[in-house]
Amino acid sequence: MPLPSTMFASSPTPAPALTPGLLLVLCLPSLFWAGNFIVGRAVSGLVGPVTLSFLRWVLALFFLLPFALRPLLRDWQQHRALYWQHRWRILGVSVVGVAAFNTLVYTGLRSTTATNGILLNSFIPILIVLLGVLFYGQKLRWSQALGLLVSFAGVLGIILHGDWSRLWNLAFGQGDLIVFAAVTGWAVYTLWLRGIPPQINRMALLVVQILLCLLVLLPFFLWEMRAGPVPQWNGRSLAALAYISIFPSVLAYLLYNHGVAQVGAARAGAFIHLMPVFGAILSVLLLGETLHLYHALGMACILGGIVLSGRR
């Protein structure tokens, strides 16, 4: 689908300081999305990827609509012209960031390792900055570049368990390419999201995104239900569906959208580097794994890199 040039406009609003409240807004999405990866991997053999993604958004819409109905009606009365003016951008973020990203991630996790999936997902902040510089005329400050490199080094340290020789032994297959396509789409989503006017209520916008996502996924969902694996519904899969329908779907998207609107795509995207940190913590709490020195060093690098990249 060809997209008009208006999709590539940026919104050069000044970024505020990172207050404790804003830091919480920027950190929580990575926590919820780290849980999404763990849950998606855990139920990959129980529910098909399109079915999981489609039902996730159906339930998310069910949970979100009672809170979003009033803002949605208000936006329809006051900002219909804005929605129509930015229709291609809204459609674009709905397809690449809501429909495609999650479906591709769940598909890729069926045939790739968790280590490779986390590594590829950690490229998102780098891709946001690179695409922003190459196609959107964004400026890259030295502190931002240094912060991204430092935090990415921390990500690699956690993934490689402090043994950098493992980097040369990583192999990438079909599942890895699918996950990489997903994270590229998320980088594009973040950049496009920045250009949606702040007058459009973010909760109402998320409802519109989910509705468009469901329209896009519906034919693929019907096909998978007919030709794909039969879903195995039990306590584990139902609990997983409930989690991904509320936390990474509704709360994380609302917080991330608000964070991008407040601090910009690059600064908000840098906080995605926290996902391996939260992944390690969740592994200890839920899977009984042990924290090591490389975890602590990696977390310190990630937090230090975020501080550097977030300097005004």
UniProtKB/TrEMBL annotation:
Domain of life, source organism: Bacteria
Main localisation: membrane
Keyword Transmembrane carried by entry: yes
Residue ranges constituting the EamA domain according to the UniProt record: 23-159, 175-309
Bilayer topology: Multi-pass membrane protein
Protein family: Belongs to the EamA transporter family.
Location in or out of the cell: Membrane
The keyword Ribosomal protein is assigned to this record: no
Any one GO cellular component localisation term in the record: membrane
Keywords: Membrane, Transmembrane, Transmembrane helix
Annotated source species: Lampropedia hyalina DSM 16112
Name of the protein in its database record: Permease of the drug/metabolite transporter (DMT) superfamily
Transmembrane residue ranges: 50-69, 90-109, 115-136, 145-164, 170-192, 204-223, 235-256, 268-287, 293-310
